[in-house]
Design brief:
- It contains 2 helices and 10 strands, in the order αββββαββββββ.
- It has 163 residues and is an alpha+beta fold.
- Strands 3, 4, 5, 8, 9 and 10 form a 6-stranded antiparallel sheet that branches.
- Strand 8 (137-141) and strand 9 (144-148) form a beta hairpin.
- The radius of gyration is 20 Å and the shape is elongated.
Length: 163
């Protein structure tokens, strides 16, 4: 019972953090909105076609152009359970199991130094004895398994710091 309560508390806390951190605050599609130009809509030097060839600042705060990694999140089991995840995108929604999500993550220079956290926290599924336990999860980076939750025995889910 204590594990179930701890797991639920972890899911609620993580959902609250993701909800607070996921606000748009003036951004559309992960890019900052451009302020209207003073010259009536003519592109500024920063908006000119030649500027497209230079690295651009991203929503993560750095210039892209670093290492890319293919990240696959997997949750095993049967039925439906809520799944919270963070790769390049984030979500917290009911999923039909088994479930997998693959995304390509491009790291900035800073993220290559300090790392970029990817995670998946599955909800509970019915175990063979009829009790509830956390669904099994795994994280693969570039096809190599880098994290799991020991078949659902670890209530923290799965997380991995990509560098």
């Amino acid at each position: 019972m204590r594990r179930t309560v701890t797991g639920v508390a972890l899911l609620v806390a993580a959902a609250a953090l993701l909800t607070g951190c996921g606000s748009d605050s003036g951004k559309a599609d992960g890019k900052a909105k451009a302020a209207p130009s003073a010259d009536g809509g003519k592109p500024s030097a920063a908006q000119s076609p030649s500027a497209a060839a230079t690295p651009t600042a991203t929503a993560k705060g750095g210039a892209k152009g670093g290492a890319t990694h293919e990240v696959t999140l997997e949750v095993e089991g049967q039925g439906q359970t809520p799944v919270m995840y963070h790769v390049d995108s984030s979500g917290f929604e009911p999923q039909t199991l088994p479930w997998a999500k693959t995304e390509t993550v491009e790291l900035t220079a800073a993220e290559q130094k300090v790392g970029y956290l990817v995670s998946v926290v599955p909800g509970s599924v019915k175990a063979a004895d009829g009790s509830l336990q956390q669904a099994a999860c795994t994280i693969k980076v570039d096809g190599k398994k880098v994290a799991d939750n020991e078949g659902g025995k670890n209530a923290k889910g799965c997380s991995y710091l990509i560098k």
